[in-house]
Amino acid sequence: MDNTPSGIAQFRALIYDHYRHHGRTFAWRETTDPYCIMISEVMLQQTQTDRVKTKYQEFLVAFPDFATLAAAPLREVLRVWQGLGYNRRGMYLQQLAQQIMALYSGTLPDDPMLLQKLHGIGPNTAGSIVAFAYNRPVVFIETNIRSVFLHHFFSERADVHDRELLPLIEAALDRENPRQWYYALMDYGVMLKKQLANPSRRSRHHVKQSQFEGSERQIRGMIIKALTEQSTLTLPQLFDLIDRAPVRIARNLVQLCAEGMVQQQGEQYHIG
Length: 272
What we know:
Blueprint: H1 5-22, H2 34-43, H3 49-62, H4 66-71, H5 74-81, H6 88-104, H7 112-115, H8 123-134, H9 143-153, H10 162-172, H11 178-195, H12 216-229, E1 233-234, H13 235-241, H14 246-259, E2 262-265, E3 268-271
Antiparallel strand pairs: 1-3, 2-3
Helix pairs in contact: 1-11, 2-8, 5-12, 8-11, 9-11, 12-14
């Protein structure tokens, strides 16, 4: 597909036609509440939608607004977060809520540049939050959007940099309804990945996700899970609870303490 105005118009029509017939429905698409949108966007980082669907509702019941999330014990936040993986995101999400309460009185900014100054928010997450919460015509990229543009505009290329995609994303953007346009793009990208070899593999930014089973990430998750179920544990108790080499458990525990997710008091460890 070419990047002329007529080619872009044809491309947009194709994406919207697919969306009309095959658009997906999610709870976070049924709201424009900035808090709910922020929760969903952080959850959807590195996690498939099927895993997010149930956890999203559970999280909102436990923490319905910025004030509740900001004031909750971190242990409780991580307990509810269990099952989504990458527990650091749960901690960052609470820190983000605390910043929004302190700096903006609980109102999420609608400026992506301001959002990027907050904890754990990069340019693409900031763009997606602003587009979906406030329907602002911002330009951002994520894995499904990347797949769509690689497939239609760089079908014969590999090692494509995002800076080559961003002008096309901006040219194709539906400025009247960016929220719906990005939903449509993402759904089309999901379809492509089901029917074809993942087009994102031709991106310079593509990173194959490492295996979870047996990984250090899995051990970190086991430590956090154990400490959400027990208020405090000693290192020998963690060794008994976690079926992994003690040296690996100890190494990951040191890292979790350095990140502030876990704290040590004497011989006892607890969620920070």
